[in-house]
Specification:
By secondary structure, this protein is of the alpha+beta class. The protein folds into 3 domains: 1-75 and 133-215, 2-Layer Sandwich (Ribosomal Protein S8, Chain: A, domain 1), CATH 3.30.1370; 78-131, Orthogonal Bundle (Arc Repressor Mutant, subunit A); 224-308 and 316-520, Bira Bifunctional Protein, Domain 2 (BirA Bifunctional Protein, domain 2). 35% of the residues lie in helices and 21% in strands. It is built from 21 helices and 16 strands. A 7-stranded mixed sheet has the order 7-11-12-16-15-14-13, sandwiched between helices. Strands 1-6-2 form a 3-stranded antiparallel sheet, with helices on both faces. Helix 4 crosses helix 8 (134-145) and helix 5 packs across helix 7 (101-113). The radius of gyration is 40 Å and the shape is elongated. Mean pLDDT is 90; it is low at 1-5. Bound molecules: phenylalanine. Phenylalanine (PHE) binds at residues 360, 362, 405, 441, 444, 465-467, 487-489.
């Protein structure tokens, strides 16, 4: 980026001027150059001690274009007077044609007030043979000095839109200890040759400019959501959680709803809340899928295993039986079973095989828990990924967002344990004093909404949903009766908006998101504010 416009060599001009006079004023000597350009040139010279400068803030009165034309041609009232003087007599309705509408409007009244002209019937005639155009004089004075000491008059001129007042910075510049008529040639690199020849001893090295800003780097940037996601991943990892494979957005109704004991008539499955996929028309029945197994082993190769390693399988190990699982789910909905009365409605296979954009990542948790039933043992799983809901988009809702989800399976878990766990978890992101409110989810009992007190907003905010998965969900999978599973979920967007001060979710995600804003956002830390 060129520092100086129009190929002007400002630094040289400054040095030349200082050769002819001891000090210069940027406002007088360089009236047309922007303050930023002057400052850049001065800094270049000052960093070499070639000049010294002081800056002064001041207010300047500046004429508007209308005022400038008054200085050039006279005030409106003067033009009216002058027109009457030349014609001797002007019919009032002719005046706008002669002097222009605006001038006639403003000028006529003032010319009356000044007793320069008067009415004679329907015409204007002269009163004064000679007049002093004091408005013009006043403005001319302001144009020259850029000031006006009479605050009342100045205010009046501002109101009449003849003068604006702006802040200006003026630099007073004088020679520095190393002043010279030209910037001497400066060496920027110390070379092996200079050392060998000894030239470095007399070389004129260019000084470092520690005030210079670095050039902006054209590099990629992580989205704030991804930065906050990483913080949450770190919290989960620090608590012994393993990440679930959530890379597929489309799932069957079976995994998204039925396996979670969500009845097929549930309003959430309605077109209102769920995006259904029409092509392909339906999913395969749940089955052991070689592609999924391959993805899973690739994932597990680089991190902790999701499930027990094959060589350490316990005695209870039994192969997953998808046929049985399918039958169990049908039974628990339709007739009841596993100690439950069920919902007692005709359960439809087709409904279960409809494809949906997953509405929650709990679909994946369910799949993982079913896998866990192969070798049930205490486990902690989490995921942070996208979910989709057919919602009206507004400042706080999008049709797609990210869910943070955690699942803990163990024997002898209690609701108090879940509350304690959540308190620990949210404390790690700086939220203390949680409150829990009884809630309803088809797949957890009891269920609790989680509230946190937001100091900035000074109110309680719902920050998540949680519960203990129902036996109707866990037992059909083949998990032991005495195994309990906690689950909880929250959105990634809400803490991100709180951390980055975003009030409209559409500025964070979607087509309204400004890429420059993303680039400019700092890293984040989820700790106490
Ligand atoms: N699936 C729930 C939601 O979408 C979150 C949740 C997960 C609740 C697990 C309880 C247990 O809000």
């Amino acid at each position: 980026v060129p520092l100086e416009s129009q190929d002007r060599n400002l630094t040289q001009e400054i040095l030349d001027l200082l050769d002819t006079k001891p000090t210069l004023q940027s406002s007088d000597d360089f009236p047309a150059i922007s303050q930023a350009e002057i400052k850049a040139a001065l800094d270049r010279l000052a960093s070499r001690s070639m000049v010294e400068y002081q800056s002064h803030d001041s207010e300047q009165a500046i004429l508007t274009p209308e005022a400038e034309s008054i200085v050039a041609e006279g005030s409106h009232e003067y033009k009216v007077w002058d027109a009457v003087r030349q014609a001797g007599k002007i019919p009032i309705k002719e005046l706008p044609k002669i002097v222009g509408t605006d001038t006639a409007k403003v000028g006529q009244g003032n010319a009356f007030k000044n007793k320069w002209v008067k009415k004679d019937g329907d015409s204007l005639v002269l009163v004064a043979d000679e007049v002093k155009d004091s408005t013009r004089e006043l403005l001319r004075g302001i144009q020259e000095t850029k000031t006006l000491s009479d605050a009342k008059v100045l205010n009046d001129l501002k109101k009449r839109k003849l003068v604006t007042v702006g802040k200006v910075i003026t630099y007073t510049v004088s020679k520095g200890p190393k002043y010279a008529k030209e910037i001497p040639v400066e060496v920027t690199d110390l070379t092996a040759e200079m050392i060998a020849s000894g030239a470095w001893e007399s070389a004129n090295f260019k000084p470092y400019n520690f005030n210079a800003l670095g050039a902006s780097q054209d590099a990629g940037a992580l989205h704030p959501l991804m930065k906050v996601r990483q913080e949450f991943r770190n919290i989960f990892f620090s608590q012994g959680f393993v990440e679930m494979p959530t890379s597929h957005f489309v799932d069957s109704g079976f995994w998204n709803f039925d396996a979670l004991f969500v009845p097929q008539q549930h309003p959430a499955r309605d077109m209102q809340d769920t995006f259904f996929i029409s092509d392909p028309p339906k999913a395969d029945k749940p089955r052991a899928d070689p592609d999924t197994e391959a993805t899973l082993s690739a994932m597990e190769a680089g991190s902790r295993r999701l499930f027990a390693s094959p060589d350490k399988q316990s005695e209870q190990t039994k192969p997953r039986d998808y046929e049985q699982y399918w039958k169990n789910i049908k039974e628990v909905h339709q007739e009841g079973g596993f100690g439950s009365r069920g919902y007692r409605y005709p359960w439809s296979e087709d409904e279960s095989l409809r494809l949906v954009l997953r509405t929650h990542t709990t679909a994946v948790s369910t799949w993982v828990l079913h896998r866990l039933s192969e070798d049930p043992r205490p486990a902690r799983y989490f995921s942070i990924d996208r979910v989709f809901r057919n919602e009206t988009v507004d400042a706080t809702h999008l049709a797609e967002f990210h869910q943070i989800e955690g699942v803990i399976a163990d024997f002898g878990l209690t609701l108090g344990g879940l509350m304690r766990f959540l308190e620990d978890f949210f404390a790690k992101m700086g939220l203390e004093n949680l409150r829990f409110k009884p809630a309803y989810n088809p797949y957890t009992e009891p269920s609790m909404e989680i509230f946190g007190f937001h100091k900035g907003l000074n109110r309680w905010l719902e920050i998540g949903n949680s519960g203990m998965f129902r036996p109707e969900m866990l037992e059909p999978m083949g998990l032991p009766k005495d195994m309990r599973v906690y689950g909880f979920g929250l959105s990634l967007e809400r803490p991100t908006m709180m951390k980055y001060g975003v009030s409209n979710i559409r500025e964070l995600l979607g087509h309204k998101c400004d890429l420059n804003w993303i680039k400019a956002q700092p890293a984040v830390r989820l700790d106490k504010d």
